[in-house]
Every structure is written in C-alpha cells, then in structure tokens.
Design brief:
By secondary structure, this protein is an alpha+beta fold. The protein is built from 5 helices and 8 strands, in the order βαααβββαβαβββ. It has a single domain (about 1-150), classed as Aminopeptidase (3-Layer(aba) Sandwich). The structure holds coenzyme A (COA).
Length: about 150
C-alpha cells in the first residue's frame, strides 16, 4: 500500500469513493437533504479547489486504485476518512491516519477533531479518538464530535 498526497487529477476517483461510501454507510442516518448536501460537497471541482487551497488530501493506493482517502482542513480538523468498502478492515484508514498525524504533529498541533459518522465511531476509538459530546444533527447530517490528543513530548 502506498500513501501519497492527492493531486487534482485524483479528484474524480476520490469523489466517487466518497459518494459510493456515503450511500452505503450514511443513508440510514442522514436525511435526503443531508445526503444531497454531502454529495454536493464531494464534487470533483470542489475537491480540486480544496487541494489547490492547501487542504491536505492523502490517498491510499492499492493495486493501482485509490482504496482510501483522508482530508485535513484548517491544519488539524479531520474532514474525511474513507476506505472503499472492498478494502475495509485491512489497515487502510490506520495507514492514512498515521501519515496525516505525522504532518499534524510536525505542524505543532496538540489535538485533532473530527465529526464522526455513526458508523465510524468504533473505528475512530481504535485510532485513539474519544467522544467529546452528544450526537449532533445539522441540516440532515448526523455526526459525533470526537477528539484525538497528541501525546505531549
Ligand atoms: C471508518 C473507516 C474509514 C475505517 O476504515 P478501514 O480502512 O476499514 O479501517 P482500518 O482497517 O484501518 O481499521 C482501523 C482500526 O479501526 C478498527 N475498525 C475498522 N472498522 C471498524 C468497525 N466497523 N467497527 C469496529 N472497529 C473497526 C479496526 O479493527 C482497526 O483497529 P485495530 O488496528 O486496533 O485493530 C471505514 O469503515 C469507512 O470508510 N467507513 C464509511 C465511511 C465513514 O463513515 N467514514 C468516516 C467519516 S467521518
């Protein structure tokens, strides 16, 4: 498995992965409007703009395809962590997270936050995150606030 920074040409594949995954894993929790907002937010042009603007997008490559994606916005906000369903439970998310965490640590941050999907809470707990509040719902999008504290050196 190779972990590398995403480039603008990856945007279509990343978008497909995010949307396919959301349809399977978020559909029971999000309203129709929430799903529409999520899908809109995953447009390839939007992803390209974010990559250009300096958000950190990482991709995991397995057998020449993008098996997972991780995005860090505003330095220490974990915006996306998605593994293609075909590659679940093979360490893809952990590898992406370890790579992102390395860069976050080098930038001097002391914590990372995420708004986790219901499905992903146990996986984030395995990665070292803890829930910091009750489940939230905004515009039909359901999430769970979680935080990872970087070990003090
Ligand atoms: C959450 C998700 C990214 C995990 O990806 P993955 O590549 O399968 O995860 P990994 O194989 O790297 O597993 C990382 C750890 O989480 C655990 N884990 C993964 N999926 C899990 C699950 N469904 N339930 C419980 N634990 C899980 C693994 O056992 C592993 O822990 P360990 O290394 O201590 O044994 C993936 O399930 C996914 O894409 N889900 C749908 C999209 C989503 O909800 N993303 C989060 C958006 S906020």
């Amino acid at each position: 498995m190779l972990i590398r920074d995403a480039i603008e040409d990856d945007a279509q594949q990343i978008s497909d992965l995010l949307i396919d995954s959301a349809r399977v894993f978020f559909a029971d929790d999000f309203s129709k409007a929430g799903m529409a907002l999520f899908i809109d937010d995953c447009a390839p042009t939007t992803l390209q703009e974010r990559i250009r603007a300096g958000d950190r997008y990482y991709v995991a490559i397995v057998d020449d395809v993008i098996a997972g994606v991780c995005a860090i916005r505003r330095g220490n906000y974990l915006y996306s962590l998605f593994t293609d369903a075909e590659f679940h439970r093979r360490g893809v998310a952990r590898k992406l997270w370890e790579r992102a965490l390395r860069d976050i640590r080098e930038s001097g941050y002391e914590e990372v936050t995420v708004k986790a999907s219901n499905y992903a809470v146990p996986a984030y707990e395995r990665l070292g995150f803890v829930c910091t509040g009750p489940r939230e719902e905004e515009k039909g999008i359901v999430s769970n606030p979680m935080r990872y504290r970087l070990p003090v050196k």
